[in-house]
Design a protein that fits this description.
The chain is mainly α and 112 residues long. The protein is 54% helix and 9% strand. It folds into 2 domains: 1-37, no CATH class; 39-112, no CATH class. α2 packs across α4.
Length: 112
């Protein structure tokens, strides 16, 4: 994070709650929310990033109080009662992938 620049948090929302949730985050936190609308269902979103996970590009801390619950949710997906963490992970990984593509396109345009 650059000093003085606001943090940006990528979030996904239900269409009927998007703006209300974004405004609440802006009003009550220091985050600048960028509302996004997922294009596919949760299973499809996971399948689009699963190759990155399987290739070992996703790293998790060895010790974290939330790790066991997070891994269990991933392993039980899509048949688990809760899937919000899996969905958040897929949204983040898709965002990272898209940003990387955008940077590569800019470099190609500049002749690097």
């Amino acid at each position: 994070m650059t000093h003085g620049a606001p943090e940006v948090m990528r979030l996904s929302f239900r269409p009927d709650r998007t703006m209300r949730t974004a405004w609440a985050l802006i009003s009550f936190t220091h985050y600048r929310a960028i509302p996004i609308m997922p294009k596919d269902d949760k299973v499809t979103r996971l399948s689009t990033v699963s190759a990155h996970i399987e290739a070992g590009y996703v790293h998790l801390p060895k010790h974290a109080p939330w790790l066991d619950e997070f891994v269990l949710e991933i392993l039980q997906f899509p048949n688990s009662r809760h899937d919000d963490q899996v969905d958040s992970m897929t949204q983040f990984l898709s965002w990272v992938r898209e940003r990387r593509r955008a940077v590569i396109r800019v470099y190609k345009l500049k002749g690097f």
